[in-house]
Specification:
Layout (H helix, E strand, L loop, with lengths): L7 H13 L2 H8 L3 H15 L4 E4 L2 E4 L1 H25 L5 E7 L8 H11 L3 E7 L2 H9 L5 E5 L7 E14 L12 E6 L4 H12 L4 E7 L2 H9 L5 E4 L7 E3 L11 E7 L7 H26 L5
Parallel strand pairs: 3-4, 3-5, 7-8
Antiparallel strand pairs: 1-2, 5-11, 6-9, 6-10, 6-11
Helix pairs in contact: 1-2, 1-3, 1-4, 2-3, 5-9
Length: 302
Amino acid sequence: MDQTNLDIDILRTLVTAQSLGGFNRAAQRVGRSQSAVSQQISRLEDRLGKPIFRKEGRGLVPTEAGDIILAYARRILDLNDEAVAAVRGVTVGGTVRFGLQVDLTENWLPKALARAKEAHPEIRIEVSADRYAVLIDRLDKGQLDLALLFGPTQRNDAQRIMALPMTWIGPRKGPVTVRRGEPVQLAVFSPICYFRQAAIDALNDAGIPWQIGFSSLSVHGVWAAVEAGLGITLRTATSVPKQLAAIKSSSGLPRLGKVDLFLHDGGREPSNPVSRFRETLLESLQEHLKRSGPAAAGANRR
């Protein structure tokens, strides 16, 4: 079988085009014309025998083959850059692709990223905040290096960080009280969602009727619905937005347990940039959770 060699320059252009969302922007970044970049990608597709991108609206979306080659291209580029830097005796940068669920994006993520950037200014960090299923899929496809996720897991790539208390969350403007015979209105993520199911299970176990008053694919949509009085929701005690409030235990809602927080690495050997970022990330996360843990744990028990 003939060996097909991949061109490093083309792989770098490929990753740049995907990151920037188009050949024109990639051309400006790598200092080539758009037609030259298009020709590079075409040559790579000819070598692989499959299309790498497909058009979707005005942008480019990787095909299945594109997802695979992009994952390998990033690893090849990291190794290439590390090898060159090792020979030259200099510190190498790199890219870390980090995914997480939205619960920690507002009150922890900005400080954590600032700390990571200060500790490792040579590393470029790409952050994706999304739903569990989306992040796991991207991690398994090699599109993410690390993913911070809630919920029970049987995955071998999961490092347990901490168990966090869950809480009922309602509008800040008024108390929430369970009235006998009236179903509790819930504002939750569309399935499949760990917190949605946890809310339903807790109400069922307590014999309290419920209805889905609002369902969304966006956590910000859920926050808006709760603020508007369309229903209450359930998340971690560390993720209560400023415009909302943890509901007091006197409301009649059932008490809640805790949910585990895991850091996943896809079972792959991390590159040096990923290892350095991971170490700083865990230090920052542990400090944040220890500070907010006691207060958060009592948020639903006043």
